[in-house]
Every structure is written in structure tokens, then in C-alpha cells.
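subagent[fold] <- orchestrator: predict structure for attached chain, return C-alpha cells only, no commentary.
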Amino acid sequence: MSSDVRSSPAGSQSRAIATPTGSRRAATSHGIPTSTGRAMSLVIVMLTVGVAVVWSLVALHQLSSSIVHESATHLDHARRTFDLARARTLDSLQAQARVMVEDPRLKSTLSTEGIDEVTVADILGDLRKLRGTGFLIVLSSDGRVFAQAGADELRGLDLSGSSVVKKAQGTSEAVAGSWVIGGKIMDLSIMPVRFGPNLVAYLVVGQAVDQDILNAVADQSGLAIATAIGQTVVLSAPSDNRARTVFAAAVGQVEGTQSRVLEIGGDTYVAAIFELEQSGQTRPRLVVAQSLTQPNATFAMIRWMMFVPPILVIIAVLFAMIAGRRIVVVRQP
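subagent[fold] -> orchestrator:
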């Protein structure tokens, strides 16, 4: 009996000692992550980082595309502004041709048989003074330059093959069009000169597309603009060397009306080329360009802010994983 009494405390002490050991073993098994847990944690972190990087890259690409698209819209607006300026010029030239063709001195002189070029040129010079700009030309009935004022480069040319001259030969109204001669784009209106029922000549009232027109369009649109014939830049606004370098690169690289991004001298530009209407067979072109330096600087802060949401997501995931590791499940005795 006495031996049973003594053995009881020993058994209780043994169980008492065994219980903390089991608790420590349980705590250890729950507190230390297994290799599978570490692998899962690594996979979760990698997936989170991957998704965050992809999201940032897509957002940056979308922002860059939006900037280029908006700039291309500005280029098209500049082209429409230039076309509108030319259209107004052509309307004015047609109106002036209708008035000047009725000048009695011009009509009577041209109807005189054997009249010389100098006399007609003097009359054209007087009429040009009234206009104050541009040029005046008298074409013979077969389309040759007979006399001119303000267009020495056209003296003696045969323009019978010009589409606008052919069009004028088939109507009695003022016809609008353009010539490209001597590297110049010339907007003009042609009106037949009749003395009674007889056609005696054609009067041409013209205005070259000059620097003033380009400067006005550039100031209104805020973009750089130029005219080109083939691969040669004729006029540009602004006319500095930097702008002409950009236009020369655009003429050599951009095809069609689709805008294109160019890297020139460390700066980024978007440029487009448009064919000019009513400009004959040489097909001169309008070149429009815009620097992306200012738009990129405007959205620089937004570019950095696009990385904030992914970074916050990564921090949240890491915090949740670290907090989960520190939770230790302790068995109660």
C-alpha cells in the first residue's frame, strides 16, 4: 500500500514534465514554417511583383500613347488651319480676278493686234500696285506667258500643259489652282479675257505661299510647320536650324499622313506629312511637327504616381505574410 502511495507522485511528476515538452513541440511545429510554406510565400511575392510591374508598364505605355495621339490631333488641326488660310487666299484671288479682268485699259490693250509685251507689263504693274502684293500674268490664248508683273521667273514659260490652265480653257468663270515653279508654291486664279465674243487672253492673279502664311499658322497652332517639295524643305516656321533639322528628318522618315515619333538630338518629336491639294503634278507637301518635351514634362509626376498603387499592394502582401508568421498556436494543457 505504502509503495503505491509513493509511486503516484512520481507518475504525476512524469506527466507534469511531459506536458510542457509536448507544448514546446507543438509550439515549435506551428511557429517554424516548413519548406512548403516558404515556397508558397515566395510564389505569392513573385506573382504580386510581376502583376505590379506589368500593370505599371501597361499604364505607362497607355499614357505615352495618349500623349502621342493628342499631339497627332494637334498636327491635324494645324493642317486644317493651313488649308483654311489657303482657301481664303484662293477665294480672294478669284474675286480679284473677276474685277481686274474688266479693267477697260487692259481689255482694250489686249484686243489691239500686235500689242507688245512692255505695254501690257506696264498695265499689269499698275494693277499690281493696287493689290500691293502677289503677281499678275497675262497668258496668250494658247497658254504661254505673254507679260507679267511680280513673277520674273515665269517670263516666257509655256504653261499650256498646266491642269489649271486646261480647266480655265473650258469655262468662262474664274478658276482656282496652284503652280509649283522655281521651288515656290503659287496659289492663283485664272480668268479668260474677252473682247466682245472673242477670247483674247487669260489673266492670272496669284499669290505665293510665303513665310508670312507659315508664320501665321505656326503662331495660331503653336506648332512647327514647313512646306516641302520632294525631299527638300522650302519654307519653315520657325526658320532656325533646329527646326529645319527636324523637318529634314521628318521628310526622310515619315510616309503618308500617319503621324510618327522621331528621336532627334536627344529630343522626341511627333511629325506628320500632308499632301497639298490643288498643287499640280509635283505634289508639294505640308510638314507639321511638335516637340513632346513639354507634354512629357507636364505628365512626369503622373508617371511616377503610377508606381504607387503596385508598391502599396506589394507592401500589404509582405506585411500580411510577416504578420502570419508571427502567429504561434500554443496548445492548452
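orchestrator: received. Logging for downstream: The CA atoms of residues 137 and 148 lie 4 Å apart. The longest helix spans residues 35-100.
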